[in-house]
Amino acid sequence: MHTITHVTDQITLVMLNVAIWSGRKKLRAEDLKLGTEVPPEELVSLGSKRVCDPEPLKIFHRIKKGAERTCLQVGTRFLGGFAVPHAHAESIAETLALLKVEFDTETRSFLAGYDRALEEWISNLPAWKEPIRRAIEPAEVVGTRLRFGYQIVRIAPAEQPGTLEEEVQGLGDGIFAEVEQMARELEGSFEGKERLHRRALGTFRRIREKLACLSFVDQRIHPVVDTLDLWFARLPADGPIDGPIFNEGMGLALLLSDAERMARHGAGQWAVQQGGEPNDSDMESDATPTEVTPLPLVHAGTELSAPLIVQSAMDFEAEMDALFSDVPVEVEVDADIDVQDHPPEPACAMPVEETVADVEGFFF
Hints:
This is DUF3150 domain-containing protein. InterPro entries: DUF3150. There is one protein chain. The protein has 15 helices and six strands. By secondary structure, it is of the alpha+beta class. Strands 4-5-1-6 form a four-stranded antiparallel sheet. Strands 2-3 form a two-stranded antiparallel ribbon. Helix 9 (about 170-180) crosses helix 13, helix 10 runs antiparallel to helix 11 (about 220-235) and helix 11 (about 220-235) packs antiparallel against helix 12. The chain starts with a helix and ends in a 40-residue tail after the last helix.
């Protein structure tokens, strides 16, 4: 039970309940005028048909995505919701409240123009007006299918917690998997280049903050934070990020882009920090959450040895080339994301902030 309560005593569970009307209805054989020779539903599904213009519905999906990003910034998926540290629950609730206001405002606007938009949609598809009209939902029904809700709750294990302990022990692996997704933003930042754009430091920093805020969940997380902090501490305050420090950054990008590698690195480094030597069982066994001593801040100019994962960057060059050979350079950017999709960054401590400040648009 200690393993469960160690985590549940420190987290708040954020549950999102966002419903978005699909704007679709089931496609029927008579819509396509297929006649009597129609395969049975057990064999063929005809899919769905749009009954309204999908463009006005995109804003609701963007708001939902923004809510999820708000929770994932310092939290992780858990029990159908998001586990976030207690210290961040209030700020997350405030952001979600603003997103709900926006969602409700957009809902009222959408419903007010619903009938007019339907007629415009039908006029653009005159050959299909009858199938569309047969499937039209009245505005009051559509309104019940647009909803933004959220709940902020504390959880405590019951005497018989079921499989809750398994869920808690799997949190660390889930966090590493989420970081792996975040690290995709670093694709193209290193391959074929000789220096690192300082704008990429923002991604490293967001990853570091997420891991630091959740380090109490799994003992393997804190050594990855240590690795990032040691690299941040050695970055030049100005001037180009190139040479050995660039290669070490590439090694970090490789580490962060592979959840299994992060887990092995964290397990091995934790074993070393405990005064032992990493072995196969340390690297592969499930990590149990344990108390973690907060990491002291480090300052620019402090002479520190590079972490083991980047201690000799040249040793990794062959591996980097092999792993990056198939990685696409282009990074997908969602041009439709607005300011609401990017909530303020959490207040987790970040060492040497002046060293890792983002600089847009050019190299030093």
